[in-house]
């Protein structure tokens, strides 16, 4: 950029007045709002004019009075035109050779998109500069990307991004190198490979038709509809399950030729796309292996595909990649480090661990009640305490600061025995004479003899003893604490599962000033993996020699199996007696060779505060056979912080298929919170899979971004988002469009709260029609499912729903011609994370049942949390709530909920032929069984007639999962819901095909289905518990501690035999049936008080 004019400005101040462009408005417009040089220039949304100050290449200043809707291109043209009328006009070049620059967040920002309006770019103070385009062509692309990425991550990230630490810098360096390598691979992709990256194939494991589908299709052939993209003509073909996409294309072209369409092209010139979505049937796979085909046949529907020209698709893919912003950035530079002294090994340190406590300050305590403030200190490995805690009270204090006179705190653990992932946990507490408050800790740890005294925790902080380079922390440090959430119900003193990140809001939090002691000279490091393994190998050799000398008889394997059976399949939280712990640990080699799936039991036998045990388990894990995905996931929750254990788990997960990874992605992202450092095997694994599959990347982005407003996650998740977006530039544009849609819908949701339902409906539709808004909705991917592409919004079909938060019912037009519209519900004000978790668990259960040969016709809709208390829900078409069905059939009477025939009558209305009605009843029976068992196991509460729905084809499903894990609502101390699950008399009436006999064979079959479904879930109880355990760190009010998992343990009865578990469920089934009248009574009351019919 030409800055020569900067030095000339002081000498040419008169030029501003002399050459200022005067736009003389009509007399009646002279009083219209106009803003001049001001920091609040763009805060007024109703400006008619703004005054710009422009620095020209000839050094002159130019004043322009323009409308905020003026484009950058028009402003640039006027700047060049005026410059040519000034002195030094000979230095002015054509407008195409210049770039307009503005000031944004104290940076000079090039406006590369000249179609944008001034109101969109909002230059700071209205200052603009006209500079040479050629000077910044390379830089601007990278700058634009950096600015764009920061904006997409959110306003909370920029501060963390600029305040780099060595760990953050090294993380960026390592991840950038990995991303660049993957990007280099993508740069040489063929168009087919790029297509599969952006729209990955969804394939089943088997190449044969699943038995569950074969039950519905007795033959090996099925129909498929193929539409010609060019003229929209359609052809119905009968295909064999082993036919491939290529053979289907050949058959279609032959049929077209017979129809005199003269299709002389080769089959290789075409590709098959699923109608209505960006999903392709490609490759040498049987058609039945594609999940779209299986899903459609399962619904007794006919698959619809579109025949597309390869050349048109190739041109689109290539153009899309050319449009992506891929700046050629220089390789990252690592700062040269000073050569350190040779570090000492931690394992050479026999002294006990110590630190010095200096002071705590800025403590917010109850000055009226508290007579003492103190500190608890403890060392933890995961949730386990490594040694006895230390407690000290402040001898003196001054207002909010308390001094401890440089008190040395000794811990009864030798430094050589400290595990690699040891955490120091600190709690600041106050001592009061009052009764224990909601946040009081348990007095068993207080050390107070008088039980009338209570220690109330005020703030906590955790930090690792080792840094990310394995070096023991030394020197004086200030720790910034977190306050206890009021909704956390826990009697635990410490919070070891909490974040190790310091509180970024440093001004308002309590501070702990400590010094980590140094040992000897130089750094102290944890031994490298090679050293640990060699140490273990030497121990193993000595043990083998000793065993050979003693010649002990080989212990039978049955004895080991019997011992493990006491814990196999049980929740890992169950206490293990020391005798069993030692016996299992002695047989560790036998477990590795014969029972490798029981690794988690063995890990609970490790004494992590003994370096010999740690070395032995590291040595074993190097040789351990790979275990199942279910057992691998268990090793990634907070109970297993050891790096070797987590590395082994990731080694097993490398074989996880993309579709299965998507199923567990929610938990895997949450598991990142349990990592002690920015870089970890889990982070590298997830990032690499997201960079190689854009569908995974889509959900990876939203799962991370939805928690960017959580202070403890802003640094970690913000850095991950930055790395992903910069490493996957082709994905930036689609995600950015979705964010723009999100902002517009947020504005729409504010409109929805301004008046009556009908009034705001009209206001919302007008808002969506506005040209300034409608363009945002064009050519976007559906955030709920990126396979669906939308060409725009349909304002006339959009409305405001009648509930407290006024959610929006938004209808998008499908980008595929003649395809169904895309309906979503946009919620602003409701926390959808719990809904998202419950729906994901329903998908897991559905997969478990299908693997066991049962399809319960679950209708699990999509739901995504996008920001705090903001997200989207998929609309299930052709469905109605039980309440509306009862009102429709009961003529809106108060007794509608008691009329057992209303639901059956409604199904008959929508399924006229008897065979179609029988199919609908079968769908209802299967889905009702699935949801009865699932809602019972998950403890889904607040079940009423407005959150249970039925599709016209008979499928029942539940919605709105605001209360789970047995958190049932109460009124006046009485629990509203007193049944294990919903099984009302009208449900039984449908299952029995119009009769109420509970001994009918149909109902007996239904009960048998429920029992089988329950036993399958119980068989996989450890997986269900593990997935919920991994979500404890989410911050959900109903899943905040281990105690919340007790409900799952009670419903799954993992300590029962299978027969006893079956009897237990039968008792619950009978209870639900016997008390169904209570549910009907609740529903009648609900129906009478509400009318949610749209």
Automatic annotation (TrEMBL):
PI3K/PI4K catalytic domain span: 794-1077
Every C2 PI3K-type domain range: 349-517
InterPro entries assigned: ARM-type_fold, C2_domain_sf, Kinase-like_dom_sf, PI3/4_kinase, PI3/4_kinase_cat_dom, PI3/4_kinase_cat_sf, PI3/4_kinase_CS, PI3K-type_C2_dom
Gene Ontology process terms (BP): bleb assembly; cell migration; phosphatidylinositol 3-kinase/protein kinase B signal transduction; phosphatidylinositol-mediated signaling; regulation of chemotaxis
Keyword Nucleus on entry: no
Catalysed reactions listed for this entry: a 1,2-diacyl-sn-glycero-3-phospho-(1D-myo-inositol) + ATP = a 1,2-diacyl-sn-glycero-3-phospho-(1D-myo-inositol-3-phosphate) + ADP + H(+)
Domain PI3K-ABD positions: 46-134
Highest taxon listed in the record's lineage: Eukaryota
Boundaries of every PI3K-RBD domain copy: 219-309
Pfam families xref list: PI3_PI4_kinase (PF00454), PI3K_C2 (PF00792), PI3K_p85B (PF02192), PI3K_rbd (PF00794), PI3Ka (PF00613)
Keyword set, alphabetical order: ATP-binding, Kinase, Nucleotide-binding, Transferase
GO cellular component: cytoplasm; phosphatidylinositol 3-kinase complex; plasma membrane
Domain PIK helical: 550-727
EC number: 2.7.1.137
GO-annotated molecular function: 1-phosphatidylinositol-3-kinase activity; 1-phosphatidylinositol-4-phosphate 3-kinase activity; ATP binding
Signal peptide: none
Record has Repeat as a keyword: no
Family statement drawn from the similarity comment of this UniProt entry: Belongs to the PI3/PI4-kinase family.
This protein's name: phosphatidylinositol 3-kinase
Species name: Drosophila rhopaloa
């Amino acid at each position: 950029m030409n800055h020569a004019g900067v030095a000339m400005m002081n000498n040419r101040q008169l030029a501003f007045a002399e050459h200022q462009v005067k736009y003389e408005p009509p007399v009646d417009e002279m009083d219209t709002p106009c803003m001049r040089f001001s920091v609040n220039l763009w805060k007024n949304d109703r400006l008619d004019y703004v005054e710009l100050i422009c620095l020209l290449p000839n050094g002159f200043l130019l004043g322009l009075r323009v409308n905020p809707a003026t484009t950058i291109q028009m402003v640039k043209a006027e700047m060049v035109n005026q410059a040519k009328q000034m002195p030094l006009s000979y230095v002015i070049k054509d407008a195409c050779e210049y770039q307009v620059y503005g000031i944004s967040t104290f940076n000079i920002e090039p406006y590369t998109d000249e179609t944008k309006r001034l109101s969109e770019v909002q230059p700071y103070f209205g200052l603009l500069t006209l500079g040479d385009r050629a000077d910044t062509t390379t830089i601007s692309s990278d700058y634009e990307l950096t600015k764009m990425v920061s904006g997409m991550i959110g306003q909370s990230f920029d501060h963390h991004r600029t305040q780099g630490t060595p760990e953050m810098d090294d993380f960026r360096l390592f991840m950038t190198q990995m991303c660049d390598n993957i990007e280099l691979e993508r740069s040489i992709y063929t168009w087919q490979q790029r297509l599969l990256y952006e729209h990955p194939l969804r394939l089943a494991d088997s190449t044969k038709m699943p038995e569950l589908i074969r039950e519905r299709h007795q033959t090996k052939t099925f129909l498929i509809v193929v539409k010609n993209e060019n003229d929209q003509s359609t052809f119905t073909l009968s295909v064999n399950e082993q036919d491939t996409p290529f053979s289907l294309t050949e058959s279609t072209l032959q049929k077209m030729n017979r129809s005199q369409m003269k299709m002389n092209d080769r089959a290789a010139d075409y590709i098959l796309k699923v109608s209505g979505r960006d999903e392709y049937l490609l490759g040498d796979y049987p058609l039945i292996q594609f999940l779209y085909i299986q899903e459609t046949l399962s619904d007794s529907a006919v698959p619809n595909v579109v025949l597309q020209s390869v050349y048109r698709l190739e041109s689109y893919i290539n153009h899309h990649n050319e449009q992506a912003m891929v700046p050629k950035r220089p390789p990252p530079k690592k700062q040269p480090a000073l050569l350190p002294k040779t570090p000492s090994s931690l394992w050479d340190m026999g002294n006990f661990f110590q630190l010095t406590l200096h002071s705590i300050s800025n403590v917010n305590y109850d000055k009226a009640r508290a007579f003492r403030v103190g500190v608890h200190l403890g060392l933890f490995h995961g949730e386990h305490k490594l040694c006895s805690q230390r407690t000290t009270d402040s001898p003196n204090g001054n207002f909010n600061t308390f001094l401890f006179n440089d008190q040395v705190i000794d811990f009864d653990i030798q430094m050589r025995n400290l595990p690699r992932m040891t955490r120091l946990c600190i709690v600041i507490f106050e001592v009061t004479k009052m009764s224990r408050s909601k946040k009081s800790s348990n007095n068993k740890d207080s050390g107070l003899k008088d039980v009338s005294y209570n220690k109330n925790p005020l703030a906590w902080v955790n930090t690792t003893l080792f840094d990310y380079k394995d070096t023991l922390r030394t020197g004086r440090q200030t720790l910034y604490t977190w306050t206890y959430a009021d909704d956390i119900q826990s009697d635990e003193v410490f919070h070891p599962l909490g974040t190790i990140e310091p509180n970024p809001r440093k001004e308002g939090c309590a501070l702990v000033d400590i010094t980590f002691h140094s040992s000897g000279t130089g750094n102290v490091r944890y031994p490298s993996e090679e050293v640990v393994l060699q140490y273990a190998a030497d121990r193993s050799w000595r043990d083998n020699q000793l065993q050979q000398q003693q010649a002990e008889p080989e212990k039978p394997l049955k004895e080991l199996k019997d011992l493990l059976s006491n814990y196999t399949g049980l929740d890992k939280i169950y206490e293990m007696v020391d005798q069993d712990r030692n016996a299992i640990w002695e047989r560790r080699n036998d477990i590795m060779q014969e029972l490798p799936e029981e690794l988690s039991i063995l890990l609970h036998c490790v004494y992590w505060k003994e370096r010999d045990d740690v070395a032995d388990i590291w040595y074993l894990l190097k040789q351990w056979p790979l275990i199942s995905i279910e057992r691998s996931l268990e090793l990634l929750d907070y109970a297993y912080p050891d790096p070797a254990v987590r590395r082994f788990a990731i080694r097993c997960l490398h074989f996880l298929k993309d579709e299965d990874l998507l199923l567990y992605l929610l938990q895997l992202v949450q598991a990142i919170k349990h990592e002690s450092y920015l870089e970890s095997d889990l982070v590298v694994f997830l990032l690499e899979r997201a960079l190689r599959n854009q569908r995974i990347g889509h959900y990876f982005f939203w799962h991370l971004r939805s928690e960017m407003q959580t202070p403890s996650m802003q640094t970690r998740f913000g850095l991950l988002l930055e790395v992903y977006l910069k490493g996957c530039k082709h994905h930036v544009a689609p995600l950015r469009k979705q964010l723009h849609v999100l902002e517009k819908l947020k504005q729409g949701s504010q409109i929805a709260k301004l008046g009556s339902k009908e009034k705001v409906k009209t206001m919302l539709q007008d808002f969506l029609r506005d040209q300034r808004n409608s363009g945002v909705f064009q050519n976007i991917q559906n955030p709920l499912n990126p396979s669906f592409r939308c060409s725009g919004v349909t304002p006339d079909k959009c409305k405001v729903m009648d509930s407290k938060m006024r959610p929006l019912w938004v209808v998008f037009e499908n980008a595929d011609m003649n395809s169904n519209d895309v309906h979503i519900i946009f919620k602003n004000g409701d926390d959808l994370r719990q809904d998202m978790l419950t729906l994901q668990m329903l998908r897991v259960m559905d997969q478990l049942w299908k693997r066991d040969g049962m399809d319960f016709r679950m209708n699990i809709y999509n739901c995504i949390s996008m920001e705090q208390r903001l997200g989207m829900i998929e609309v299930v078409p052709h469905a109605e709530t039980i309440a509306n069905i009862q009102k429709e059939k009961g003529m809106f009477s108060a007794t509608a909920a008691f009329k057992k025939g209303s639901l059956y009558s409604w199904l008959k209305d929508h399924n006229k032929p008897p065979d179609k009605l029988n199919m609908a009843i079968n769908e209802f029976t299967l889905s009702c069984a699935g949801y009865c068992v699932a809602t019972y196991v998950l403890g889904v509460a607040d079940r009423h007639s407005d959150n249970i729905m039925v599709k016209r084809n008979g499928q029942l499903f539940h919605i709105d999962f605001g209360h789970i894990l047995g958190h049932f609502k109460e009124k006046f101390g009485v629990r509203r819901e007193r049944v294990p699950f919903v099984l009302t008399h009208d449900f039984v009436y449908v299952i029995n095909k119009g009769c109420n006999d509970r001994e009918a064979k149909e109902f007996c079959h239904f009960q048998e289905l429920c029992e089988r479904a329950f036993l399958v879930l119980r068989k996989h109880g450890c997986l269900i518990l593990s997935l919920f355990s991994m979500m404890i760190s989410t911050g959900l009010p109903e899943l905040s501690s281990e105690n919340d998992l007790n409900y799952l343990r009670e419903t799954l009865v993992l300590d029962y035999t299978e027969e006893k578990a079956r009897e237990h469920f039968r008792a619950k089934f009978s209870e639900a049936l016997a008390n169904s009248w209570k549910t009907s009574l609740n529903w009648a009351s609900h129906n009478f008080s509400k009318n949610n019919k749209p």
